[in-house]
Each structure stands twice: as structure tokens, then as C-alpha cells.
Amino acid sequence: MNDKTLISVSDLKKYYNGGSIKALDGISEEIRKGEVVVVIGPSGSGKSTFLRCLNLLEVPTGGHILFNGADITDEKTDINLHRRKMGMVFQHFNLFPHMTILRNMTAAPIKILKRRREEADAQAMALLKRVGLEDRANAYPSQLSGGQKQRIAIVRALCMSPEVMLFDEPTSALDPEMVGEVLEVMKQLANEGMTMIVVTHEMGFAREVGSRVIFMDEGRVVEENTPSAVFDRPQSGRLKSFLAKVL
Amino acid sequence: MEFWPELQKDFYQSFVEGGRWLLYIKGLGTTLLVTLLALILGIALGIIIAVIRAAHDQQALRKVNPVLKILNALCKVYTTVIRGTPMMVQLLIMYFVIFSNTRNQIGVAVLAFGINSGAYASEIIRGGIMSVDPGQMEAGRSLGFGYAGTMRLIIIPQAIKMILPALGNELITLLKETSIVTVIGLRDLTKAAMLIQGKTYQAFMPLIAIALIYLALVMILSWLLGSLERRLRASER
Q1: pLDDT at residue A75 above 90?
Q2: How many domains does chain B have?
Q3: What is the residue range of B60's domain?
């Protein structure tokens, strides 16, 4: 593990029903700063579970996760401190429906980082401008389209100035014509050097933006390589048949 | 034939003579005071119990917190006992057994009704908490909020909105149920009517009068709750 390593995962396991279902069966990965890691695989392959284990939304059955050198799987670690530094974007947006867009974005900076309200508002407005939604600051989530909601969810996470962004199928719940606007924001973010781990079915995004692609199946990493190697020269039979179905 | 003068005499005796209308006003004040304080106590207790029980049910299987387990068991006993015994019996026990040394009837009544109401409110609130999308908790936690912070800022405000009709129902029940504080001698609205009935030997006027007052109170409450609900909903559209 060198100083460029941000997250180091070793032998990560997640079992259900006392081991009869192995959602993750021994994953070891190193995520370096500035990398855009795209995780692909058939449904049920464990890719979402893997992502959700990284900020302990799922509690792993075994293995270790080091984030900035701290073992977050250790029960003595205060996970809340580390989650601030790991932004997460969900498939179903999970915006807070009882708050305006601006409050959605500033609640955590104000309450957790103890920022002044004006300061948090200014930061949020700047981020909203970047995704072209500054005129919706005082709207409620229900007034927004799916694509808009997801762009807000991304900038809400960015308000905490995270070191890594986790994306859990961010475009899967969107109407097809809204997928592009969300991917565009993610692409921008990648270009600015944000470390990203993206679980997605968008193979075009994986190929264009990813610095590394991980193919998972049955709770294991079957193959990983640069996007061009994975898509143009797949090695394993399972990856070949998966790509044949999705491309 | 003698109907109208008779009625006038009844009315005079029941409301005017000796300033009896003041008794109704004072009684109404006591009823409202007991209801309001019991409501506050009941909702506070209800939220605490609901959060304990929801936290117990939702905790990760990895580490079952023993303190939480004991608290959860206590909460279960509390709701079982309170929901399983009549309100009037609870009130009598509270006044004549537990606090037999005090004559602070209002305090005892608030405590008894608050504790009773808390048991019902906790189940309503727990239902509300459980009905909030789990993704909301995940989103809150992923931003760095702790369990308690996420509950307070994100889950409970949404839960309250959803359970407002049921909580309103509980409030209306509470208001009407306070009429049994007469058994510990507290002079609420119902007791006022009974006292006047005892003096004038006229049952009709005082009882119909307080029935109408209760009815009016409930109608006002329903209207207030309805407009509160509409306002909360409006903020989301």
C-alpha cells in the first residue's frame, strides 16, 4: 500500500443466512487517488454489496477495509467521521422530501461540519450553478425530474468535500433521455480528478471515463483491466458472454 | 303549555344563578390544561419509546446492543400493561396507590393520561418511522450523520407528517377521555356539570351543554389538524 492508495480492501466477505448465500466471497482491491473505477457485472453479482460495504452501509462478515490508512471495519472506529469523506449517490436519489434543494445540500455541512449558514449556502449555490440548477434552490425534490434529482444528489454529496464518491447504479432508475445529463456531471467530476467508484450498466461511460473496469460475478472479481482491454480483449468466458448480452 | 317558562327557569338555574357559568369555564380550563400537558408528555414518551423499539428492530445483526435489548423489553412491558388495563383503573391506581400522599390532582391526571397516551402514540410513531423509506436513513448516514441525528432531522419529521391523522385521532380520544378525571375529584368540565346537576336537580341543561362544548372542541381540533396537514403537504408540491 503506497501513499497514493485511498482505499484498500482485503479479503472482503459478506454472507447471508449464516453463509449459505455468499454475496461477497473474498474481494481484495486497491483504489488509488484520482482513479475512476467502474464495477460491472450481472445482477446479483455482488457489485452493489461491494460498494455499500465500502462505507459500511452493509456490515461485512469478514475482511478489512482501510480508508486513508484507518481500518473502518474495526468496531472502535467512528464510522461517521469517515463517511463524511465518502460521498454516496444512490439509485433512487434519496433526497430528503421535506427539505428544499438548498437545505438538502446544506443540512450536513451546517450540522456536522458546523459551517455558518451563509457559507454553506454560498458553497451549495456555486455547486448548483455548476450543474445548471441554481434556479431550483428553493424547490422541493418532488418538483424535480429524475435527472435533476440525481444531479442534486451528486452535488449534495459534494457539499461535504468528499475524497471519494461512490455511485450505486446512478442512472438505473432514470428515463433514458435523462441518463445523459447525469453521466455528463459524473464525467466532469472525473475530469477534475475526483476519485470515483461507479457501479453501473452504462458500458459507454465505463469505456470512456473509467480508468479501470472491474468485472464481478457470484461475489468475486472475475476480471479487471483497463476499459479497452476489458471491452476489446475480454479473457474469461463469463465476461465474454456478459459483454455479448449487454453490448 | 308551561314548557317555555319551565325551560327558561332551567336555563337560569343551570347557568346564571350564583354565577354557575363560571364553573363551566373553570372546568373547561382544567380539561384543556390536562389534555395539553398529557399530550406533550404522551408524544415525548411516544417518540422515545418508538425510537428505542425501531432502533432495536433495525440494528445490524453483527452487534446486538445489550442495553438496547433491555430498554426494548421494558418498552414492550410498558405498552402491554398500559394498553391492557382500563384508563380509569390506571388513574385510580396512580392517585390512590402510587401518589396517595399528594392532593395535586392535576399533576396526577397529567401523569396518568400522559403515560397512557404515550403507549398508544409510541405504536403510531413507530409505524410512521418504519414507513419512511430505508433509503432516507442510508442517505443521512452516508452524509456522516449519526443514527440519532438522522432520526431527528430526517426520519422523524417525515414520520410525523405521515402519522398526523392517526395522532390527531389520539388527541381527540385523549380530550374526551379526560372526563374520567372526575373519579379522583378533579373539577374538569364534566365535574362542573355534575356539581351543578347536584345543586339544581336538573340533568338536561348541564349535560347537554357540556356535550356541546366537547363536540365544539373536537370540531375545532379536527379543523386545525386538517389545515396543519394541508400546510405540511403543500410544502412538498
Answers
A1: no
A2: 1
A3: 32-188
